[in-house]
Design brief:
8 helices, Aminoglycoside 3'-phosphotransferase, Chain: A, domain 2, Phosphorylase Kinase, domain 1, 35% helix, 2 domains, 310 residues, alpha+beta
Amino acid sequence: MSEFEASDEILAAIAGRHGITAEQVRPLPAGVANRVFLLGDDLVLRIPRTKQFLPDLVKEVAVIPAALHAGVRTPEVVAFDDTCSVVDVPYMVLARARGADLAGLDLPAADADRVHHQVGRELAKLHRLSPATAPDLPAVPVEDDADPWALTDRLLVAGWIDAEAARWLTGWFDRLSEHLPAEPSLVLVHGDIAPQNLLVSPATAELNGIVDWGDAQWADPAVDFAKMPLTGIPAMLDGYRQATGERVSASTPSWEARVLWFHLTWALGRLPDPVPRPGERHWTAPPAGRLLGLLRFFASAPPAPWADLA
């Protein structure tokens, strides 16, 4: 599939529409779906790589205002053009959120926990939105849940795991399922709450913005805790629970079980795709990233009730 060409002339034309000179256009780290540029000091330009990613950009234009209305810290949409009438690529311009992305920061543990706590509080705001309370989001899909028991069987038959490992994994999912709600509520999730999408002030450990809403969907709210390393999840859940007023109960660790359910399922889902993805900044890009994340977390004496879920 051919990629949209972000030539110097196109970048200059888009910048000029916002009073920015061509010399003030600078590239930022690109994502899987979009090329990203800084326009001056206050605007960010995003251009989808191919037509495949254009629907996600259209979705973002609808989702971002809804998230802002809910009080979520995210940059507002300044302009969107998918007509290709002025320049021959679709694009979106956003206000700039200051700071560095969390993936590029090596924060002390206390500062990292502070950021994760803030992220949890922001998710609590976002998850107040449901198909009933935010019906004007037709571009947002419903998540298609994976069946971890069927996945385990497929991995066994295909030779990715042995029979003993399959029995152990099946038992683990059986135990986790005892803590899951029969019918989890569907809420608006960001879908890619990951370190590279969290903009943070390095000096103050203040969360300045959540970006990249192309994976937004209606889903179990636990999905939004499944693309962050597990080491940050306890602080995120603490912030989330404080914002929602939910009490922690060691006897019914529903949230921890739901989050672990997704981490484990998605880690196993990557086994049949062992091809490395050099250059991608997401911590799960390496084939063993999620499995190593699980190992690291449970080897670090996690707080209750996590150890009891292993």
